TrEMBL record:
CDD domains (UniProt xref): TM_PBP2
Name assigned to this protein: ABC transporter permease
Record membrane topology: Multi-pass membrane protein
Domain of life the protein comes from: Bacteria
Organism: Bordetella genomosp. 5
Keyword tags: Cell membrane, Membrane, Transmembrane, Transmembrane helix, Transport
Amino acid sequence: MSRLLRGRRASARLMSLALLVALVGIWEAVVRQTGISALVLPAPSAVAATLWNTLASGYLWPHIGTTVAEMLLGLALGAAAGLVIGVALAESALLDRVLKPYVIVSQVVPKLALAPLFVLWFGFGMAPTVVMTALICFFPLMENTLTSLRQVDSNRLQLFGMLGASRTQTLLRLKLPAGLPGILAGLRVAVVLALVGAVVGEFIGASRGLGAVIIAAQGMMDTPLMFAALTAIAVIGLVCYQATLWLERRLLRPYTDQP
């Protein structure tokens, strides 16, 4: 990586951090000057104090662990199913015609409406939230996989056919490597949706997790605690998204490095 590119990236990060500091400063000043009740909008300092206290006391850590576990389990199940079904639909026009309508129906039905059924079927605990998370993050990876595999250069497909490559060899050595950028883009979307699905799933009947903390804080009218939980969710989302970007760069490096 050139020194100029590294400098530009560092400048962009500094600008992003400066914007965050400015927004938080404006928020703090507005709350203090207008005297808005903490019940309506707590100051960032109050949110930071609540976040620190809940972390230092150990109250928030089990809930963070539960949410992260539900997110990762749901993402693993949904991503695996999305990848497998996306490949199957891309490789078989018959399966595409038969299964695609059911896949679409599974996505247009609101997941929040299904949450009470998931609780009834799978009981209380992590299982219904994991299932909801898997359903939510399944579709982006499936659709991106299907689209990416179908957009492989036809000339390269003809070349593989002329060389006598089997269908499996063509899939593993041409289609998947060529479609990897699109597949990983679907994974980035799935990671964000997995966290959303985990938190939303915890709104229905969960006793642990950051979503459950938000519902409890709402019941106690503890708005600073609610914002503290939202801050923790935002940090988890940013960390997971950056981890996905790092993974994407590592996987795509063999195809982007110049000799």
